[in-house]
Design goal:
The complex is a heterotrimer of chains A (about 230), B (about 300) and C (about 110).
Chain A: H1 3-18, H2 27-55, H3 61-66, H4 77-80, H5 86-107, H6 113-142, H7 145-158, H8 173-186, H9 209-223
Helix pairs in contact in A: 1-2, 2-6, 5-6, 5-7, 5-8, 6-7, 6-8
Chain B: H1 2-11, H2 24-43, H3 45-49, H4 58-83, H5 89-97, H6 115-135, H7 141-169, H8 173-192, H9 204-209, H10 217-235, E1 245-247, E2 252-254, H11 260-270, H12 274-287, H13 289-304
Helix pairs in contact in B: 2-4, 4-7, 6-7, 6-8, 6-10
Chain C: E1 27-33, E2 40-47, H1 51-62, E3 70-75, H2 87-91
Antiparallel strand pairs in C: 1-2, 1-3
The chains are: A mainly alpha (about 230), B mainly alpha (about 300), C alpha+beta (about 110).
């Protein structure tokens, strides 16, 4: 199983979500988004540590998070996409949550016991994340003309990153559709099929956004390597 | 009659609750103070939020997100307490954005290095806790109860800050210099957090009489200095005050004069970050308007269904 | 944190009076059961557009340190409260001394009862 890939997805998504802290549309949302970011960060730390153990080269979670470059990061492209407006963020979260709930359900039965334990806990969190993104999708989809338009633009912008999520897990596609479609129908929204999907995150072929995210995230750790914080 | 009953409650050290009659000035003073306290929590998210993306380790990142999130929570508890006095949160936000209500001036200084995350937790939260412990005994029930919850949660804030400082001071020479520089920049603004001298403080006397405030600015400031000096010694850091000295007779530390010109300049809006903080807050609020509006519509639909 | 924010000389103090709450998300009261076997206790309040999101927000705001196993949210407007000015009539009149265990003298020899 691609432990590092799963770790990177959660790391990069946590980094993106944490950009909302102190900038969300309302206090309750600020708190909710921070919670979700913390959940993803927790999963990332557990899996990076696990990968370091499996790899056996003595790399810690911070070595892996702070000292790998763009081409070495293996997250899915959807995770690194910028937050955009709140509608685009919710669209990204809904798509990713709809995928990740199925992923954790599957990995909870993994023969890798550490991975299975992380997945079982993460599944509980992911169900809550999904509930949050689905609730907000409906609210924005059915709210005002503007909110529907913004939500819809978010889905259009992200549609090309959907297929990549299933490259390694074709079997998760059906569950994804079953979770997603009723929410979108209820919300008067559609996920268009993009004829030119982008992929390659797992091989380190990223969008240009990731470099900037890493430049920020790693700046301090790289400026003073080898010290404790 | 009502006035006498209100006085009797204060006299008996009983809490005043939102449904009790209270003098209009008491109510206004509380609204102002609780709102400013809430605004301080909310604006206070920014200086630390500034370092979330760059936190040097994942553990520190998680702690910092959790801490800033707590501040949002504290702001929320406090706005709720203010709302028991018959105002709503949007009104208070408006007063913050228009500059009619203020927040603690400490947040009008920039965070320029990672060590500032340590100094803010250690000094700023330390100063805040000194004040908030007193506010747990405030005469207004909803405010006092919010303080109990906040104090419980905030002990972690100060400890994590001190731990950052300790790690830096035990680290490389560059890290230690970073910690010293941060203490140099945050020490005096932290002392200013307690407000003007008692003799200059317009609200103190009335607030003490109403038991909203229980200990004077100067006493709290002294408590803070006495508590903090040994902590700085333990870190091996130098407090930037040549007049700082133990006074055996008083049983307290003496310290040098505070630059009140700087203090009033920042209070009046001319600190290094006043404009940026409000601008950031207002932008986030305005950018989120369509989200709040959409949710209000769906709420109205749900309500009528 | 806190915060004595001082008054600037010559600057008017803000006064706030209650206004219309149209367009503002309604207020909800949050009750939390700390652990099984205990009652739900009032924890505070929050704003949310509807009951579902009030519940989600309550989880985020009031149980960040796993303070609960169950949450109730109630629209604040649905709460009917007794009048504090009527408190003496409302509560003290109900007092009957013989409802309390201490009202009865039982000889010490009888033991704990």
């Amino acid at each position: 199983m691609n432990v590092l890939g799963f770790a990177d997805d959660n790391l990069i998504l946590a980094q993106r979500l944490s950009e909302w802290v102190a900038a969300a549309p309302d206090l309750e949302l600020d708190i909710a988004v921070a919670n979700i970011a913390l959940d993803h960060l927790g999963v990332a730390r557990a899996l990076l540590t696990h990968f370091g153990d499996l790899e056996g080269k003595g790399r810690t979670e911070d070595d892996l998070a702070m000292f790998r470059s763009e081409r070495e990061l293996t997250n899915l492209l959807i995770c690194e996409q910028p937050n955009g407006d709140f509608g685009q963020t919710i669209a990204r979260q809904l798509l990713f949550d709809s995928y990740q709930v199925g992923l954790w359900e599957k990995l909870a039965g993994s023969p890798d016991e550490v991975l299975a334990a992380v997945a079982s806990k993460a599944l509980l969190e992911a169900r809550y994340h999904w509930q949050h993104s689905a609730t907000w999708t409906e609210r924005l989809g059915r709210g005002t003309e503007e909110s529907n338009r913004r939500m819809q633009s978010g889905l259009v912008a992200l549609a090309r990153y959907v297929d990549e999520m299933f490259d390694e897990h074709q079997d998760l596609r059906r569950g994804f559709d079953e979770r997603l479609t009723p929410v979108l129908d209820e919300s008067r929204l559609v996920l268009p099929k993009d004829p030119f999907p982008r992929r390659g995150g797992r091989r380190g072929m990223h969008t240009e956004h990731l470099g900037h995210l890493l430049a920020k995230m790693q700046s301090l750790a790289r400026a003073y390597p080898g010290v404790q914080w | 009659m009502r006035e006498a009953k209100f006085r009797a409650l204060l006299e008996a050290e009983e809490k005043v609750e939102s449904t009790d009659w209270m003098p209009e000035e008491y109510r206004q003073t509380l609204i102002r103070q609780i709102a400013q306290h809430a605004h301080s929590e909310i604006i206070g998210m920014q200086p630390e939020g500034n370092w979330i993306s760059r936190a040097p380790s994942l553990r520190r990142k998680a702690i910092l997100i959790a801490k800033v999130q707590d501040e949002a929570g504290h702001g929320l508890y406090l706005y709720s307490a203010a709302e028991t006095l018959g105002v709503n949160r949007d009104q208070l936000m408006e007063l913050l954005h228009s500059g009619k209500q203020k927040y603690s001036s400490i947040f009008n200084y920039p965070t320029l290095s990672w060590a500032d995350m340590g100094a803010i937790g250690w000094l700023v939260d330390g100063a805040a806790i000194t004040n908030q412990v007193m506010l747990k005994r405030c005469s207004y029930g909803p405010y006092a109860r919010a303080m109990v919850k906040i104090c419980l949660e905030e002990s972690f804030h100060q400890r994590q800050g001190y731990e950052i400082m300790l790690t830096l001071c035990n680290g490389s020479a560059e890290q230690k210099a970073m910690a010293q520089d941060s203490l140099d920049r945050w020490w005096w603004p932290s002392l200013m957090m307690f407000g003007p001298h008692d003799s200059e403080s317009t609200h103190t006397e009335q607030s003490m009489e109403w038991k909203i405030k229980r200990v004077s600015n100067d006493e709290l400031r002294q408590q803070f200095v006495d508590m903090t000096v040994p902590q700085a010694d333990y870190l091996g850091l130098q407090i930037p005050d040549p007049d700082l000295a133990w006074n055996e007779e008083r049983g307290h530390y003496d310290f040098g004069p505070i630059d009140w010109d700087e203090f009033w300049a920042v209070v009046k809006g001319h600190g290094p970050m006043n404009r940026d903080r409000i601008e950031h807050k207002r932008k986030a609020w305005d950018d989120g308007a369509w989200v709040r509006q959409a949710a209000a519509v769906s709420s109205a639909v749900a309500g009528s269904a | 944190m806190t915060y004595s924010v001082p008054q600037v000389a010559g600057e008017a103090e803000s006064k706030v009076t209650g206004t219309e709450t149209d367009g503002v998300w309604p207020l909800w009261e949050v009750f939390i059961r700390q652990k099984r076997g205990l009652a739900h206790v009032h924890a505070g309040s929050l704003h949310a557009p509807d009951a579902d999101s009030a519940l989600l927000a309550a989880r985020d705001v009031y149980t960040r340190r796993v303070e609960g196993v169950s949450i109730w949210v109630v629209a604040s407007t649905e709460i009917v409260a007794s009048d504090p000015d009527e408190a003496p009539a409302f509560f003290e009149a109900i007092e009957k001394p013989y409802r309390h265990a201490t009202h009865y003298d039982i000889p010490d020899e009888v033991g704990q009862m």
